[in-house]
């Protein structure tokens, strides 16, 4: 090889020499290229270069996935070196069989009646309690619901208190916020993992307890399980509690402060140590101990740590005493949470004026006591667009709900001294429950909020609650048309308690109501099964959480469950939003404190409007008039009121009452004042609704003519100057 290389080198030098001497340049260049290629080929074929080439080829095949026995591996084995591959015997790879698994997001709920997606607050509370969302992996092949249930119990130990679970997913609408129970496949008694994977796809799987709500505060028997599962993941530094002197992990210190066995009196400082001035501080006896007690130092250090947050709260809430701000910071932990707590307190602070045994007049007096006397909120209303104008007014950031209203109807000459405000209140109440607003449905005396996603997203139910609170406080106008179940949910904020007032009459959907009646009257299980299948009520039953077959033995429970779902559960978000609006001016606080007294504003009562009660509203209807014409007109008026009751009943009396006072019913607190009858020398009636004055014509000689004028006034009971 060496001689060959030398020869090649010699040839190369010869070629180079010939290149210089030969005048044919192209021939010399070709000779040079051939000589170079030959030299390169000889260099590559040397043993060292061959090994380098083979190693490069082997590395290339290893990196880019070439499999099988190669020449390189056999060459390396022949050289006495072990192959780098992972092959087993005969060069074949020994791979372990892969197990098919399914990883999915599961969300453990706490409430057995949960049918809506979680709010951010609920997600936070569930996560803090070891519930909420977790990624869970389960094998697919030959695995079923029993295996999944065992894994769920390991991931969510609190489920052992649930008494059974059911799996749910969101509805199939584009913006669905409701949860639906995943039905068991036909012909099977349980789920399979393949079935769940196909049904859920990308949707989260919600795990809902059946028999019992899960505690958000973790019980001690589950606390150990949670602690053991997280102890290895991270460790938490501890600090000594200044009250009980125990070593507590700092992340649990806030909760420990509320459950510490030391009483609240530990925070108090002995009266002898408190100094009112610097001069008195110098006169403290020397016999007093110089060291602070643990309780005193703990209290002062905690308050000093919260001073920046308290200063921020003081800028927003200048009126509350310092102790209130300290308690809010202790309870909330952060400035933002403390602000929310104080806002709730200011909203419900009206309850301090309400006693448990107060009558309605005392309750309303307490709610109105702090309202400014001179505050006026102006309304400019177009009758044709009253609902839109009202929304704009109540949404205006400058709107003051504590100010009394002053209303002006566009295009009308009336000046509001009370009458126009009452008329506006009546029309606004009708608009709230009208088809134009599309917020409520049901019978006239059993109204329920519609699950209107647009209304919820636009906060219209909150706005409606705020309007109702404003009408009650300033105009004594209620909404006596709610379902009792609706009202008692406002009282308790608990579906289980409010469900006691649910009945079939509350179900707005006529077909569902008819189906419930038919199932209730069925005589056999086969008849019930046919009713369920023929009316396609399976989806409705599943949405209500009923996953079993309906039989004679369980139909009462199934139907009651369906009624509660139709009346309350599926409307919960709208109910809560309306309830939040009622917190304005302390109305919701009054409802919770005195529900029986306040229900007159919300639930229809037995009618008390009659000819006798209408006549009692007049201040001087019984006074005998000296003028014969006035006395005759007084008698005609009394007769016409009785005729109106006989001919049209309560509806006719409401028309006359509305014309005379701008009120369709006697307010819960009664009329502010009696109506004065004035006899005038004209042929038509005229009502001064602001002044509570009714001008009665005395020129009619016959009862028929007087009655015609009277009925004309009743027919035109709306709008200034209509009569």
TrEMBL record:
Subcellular compartments: Cytoplasm; Endomembrane system
GO cellular component, one term: nucleus
Region annotated Disordered, chain positions: 1-51, 68-97, 276-304
GO biological process: Golgi organization; membrane fusion; protein polyubiquitination; ubiquitin-dependent protein catabolic process
MF GO annotations: ligase activity; ubiquitin binding; ubiquitin protein ligase activity
Catalysis performed (reactions): S-ubiquitinyl-[E2 ubiquitin-conjugating enzyme]-L-cysteine + [acceptor protein]-L-lysine = [E2 ubiquitin-conjugating enzyme]-L-cysteine + N(6)-ubiquitinyl-[acceptor protein]-L-lysine
Record keyword Nuclease present: no
EC number: 2.3.2.26
Broad class of the protein's primary localization: cytoplasm
Keyword Membrane assigned: yes
InterPro entries: CUE, E3_ubiq-protein_ligase, HECT_dom, Hect_E3_ubiquitin_ligase
Compositional bias annotation for Basic residues: 81-97
PROSITE patterns: CUE, HECT
Pathway stated in the Swiss-Prot or TrEMBL entry: Protein modification; protein ubiquitination
Compositional bias segments (type: Polar residues): 20-51
Skewed-composition ranges (Low complexity): 1-19, 68-80, 283-304
Transmembrane segments: none
Coiled coil: none
Keywords in alphabetical order: ANK repeat, Cytoplasm, Ligase, Membrane, Repeat, Transferase, Ubl conjugation pathway
PANTHER family named in the record: E3 UBIQUITIN-PROTEIN LIGASE HACE1 (PTHR11254:SF363), HECT DOMAIN UBIQUITIN-PROTEIN LIGASE (PTHR11254)
The protein's name in its UniProt record: HECT-type E3 ubiquitin transferase
């Amino acid at each position: 090889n060496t001689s060959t290389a030398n020869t090649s080198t010699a040839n190369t030098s010869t070629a180079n020499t010939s290149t210089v001497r030969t005048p044919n340049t192209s021939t010399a260049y070709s000779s040079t290229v051939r000589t170079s290629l030959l030299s390169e080929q000889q260099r590559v074929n040397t043993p060292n270069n061959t090994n380098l080439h083979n190693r490069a080829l082997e590395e290339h095949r290893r990196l880019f996935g070439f499999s099988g026995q190669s020449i390189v591996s056999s060459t390396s084995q022949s050289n006495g070196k072990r192959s780098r591959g992972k092959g087993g015997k005969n060069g074949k790879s020994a791979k372990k069989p892969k197990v098919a698994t399914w990883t999915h997001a599961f969300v453990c709920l706490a409430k057995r009646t949960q049918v809506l997606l979680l709010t951010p607050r609920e997600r936070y509370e569930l996560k803090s309690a070891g519930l909420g969302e977790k990624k869970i992996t389960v094998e697919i092949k030959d695995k079923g619901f029993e295996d999944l249930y065992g894994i769920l119990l390991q991931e969510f130990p609190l489920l052992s208190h649930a008494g059974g679970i059911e799996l749910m997913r969101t509805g199939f609408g584009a913006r669905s916020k409701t949860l639906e129970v995943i039905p068991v496949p036909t012909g099977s008694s349980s789920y399979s993992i393949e079935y769940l994977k196909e049904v859920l796809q990308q949707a989260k799987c919600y795990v809902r307890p059946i028999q019992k709500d899960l505690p958000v505060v973790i019980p001690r028997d589950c606390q150990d399980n949670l602690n053991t599962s997280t102890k290895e993941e991270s460790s938490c530094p501890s600090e000594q509690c200044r009250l009980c002197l125990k070593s507590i992990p700092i992340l649990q210190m806030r909760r420990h402060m509320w459950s510490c066995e030391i009483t609240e009196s530990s925070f108090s400082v002995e009266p002898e140590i408190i100094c009112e001035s610097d001069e008195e501080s110098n006169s403290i006896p020397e016999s007093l101990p110089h060291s602070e007690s643990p309780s005193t130092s703990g209290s002062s250090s905690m308050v000093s740590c919260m001073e920046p947050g308290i200063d921020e709260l003081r800028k927003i809430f200048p009126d509350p005493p310092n102790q209130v701000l300290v308690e809010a910071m202790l309870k909330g932990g952060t400035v933002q949470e403390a602000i929310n707590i104080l806002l709730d307190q200011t909203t419900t602070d009206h309850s301090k004026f309400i006693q448990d045994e107060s009558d309605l007049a005392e309750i309303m007096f307490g709610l109105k006591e702090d309202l400014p006397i001179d505050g006026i909120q102006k309304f400019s209303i177009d009758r044709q667009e009253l609902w839109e104008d009202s929304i704009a007014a109540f949404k205006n950031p400058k709107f003051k709900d504590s100010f009394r209203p002053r209303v002006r109807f566009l295009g009308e000459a009336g000046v509001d001294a009370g009458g126009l405000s009452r008329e506006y209140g009546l029309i606004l109440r009708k608009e709230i429950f009208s088809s134009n607003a599309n917020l409520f449905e049901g019978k006239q005396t059993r109204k329920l909020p519609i699950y209107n996603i647009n209304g919820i997203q636009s906060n219209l139910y909150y706005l409606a609650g705020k309007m109702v609170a404003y009408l009650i406080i300033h105009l004594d106008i209620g909404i006596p048309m709610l379902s009792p179940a609706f009202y008692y949910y406002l009282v308790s904020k608990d579906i289980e308690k409010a469900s006691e007032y649910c009945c079939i009459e509350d179900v707005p959907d006529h077909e569902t109501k008819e189906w419930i009646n038919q199932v209730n009257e069925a005589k056999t299980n086969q008849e019930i099964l046919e009713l369920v299948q023929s009316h396609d009520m399976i989806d409705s039953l599943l949405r209500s959480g009923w996953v079993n077959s309906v039989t004679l033995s369980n139909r009462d429970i199934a139907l009651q469950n369906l009624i509660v779902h139709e009346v309350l559960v599926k409307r919960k978000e709208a109910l809560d939003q309306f309830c939040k609006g009622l917190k304005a001016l302390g109305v919701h606080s009054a409802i919770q404190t005195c529900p029986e007294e306040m229900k007159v504003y919300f639930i229809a009562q037995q009618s008390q409007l009659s000819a006798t009660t209408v006549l009692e509203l007049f201040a001087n209807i019984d006074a005998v008039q000296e003028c014969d014409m006035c006395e005759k007109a007084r008698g005609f008026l009394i007769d016409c009121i009785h005729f109106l009751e006989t001919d049209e009943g309560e509806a006719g009396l409401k028309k006359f009452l509305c014309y005379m006072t701008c009120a369709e019913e006697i307010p819960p607190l009664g009329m502010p004042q009696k109506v004065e009858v004035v006899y005038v020398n004209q042929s038509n009636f005229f009502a001064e609704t602001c002044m509570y004055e009714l001008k009665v014509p005395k020129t009619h000689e016959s009862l028929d003519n007087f009655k015609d004028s009277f009925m004309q006034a009743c027919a035109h009971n709306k709008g200034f100057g209509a009569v």
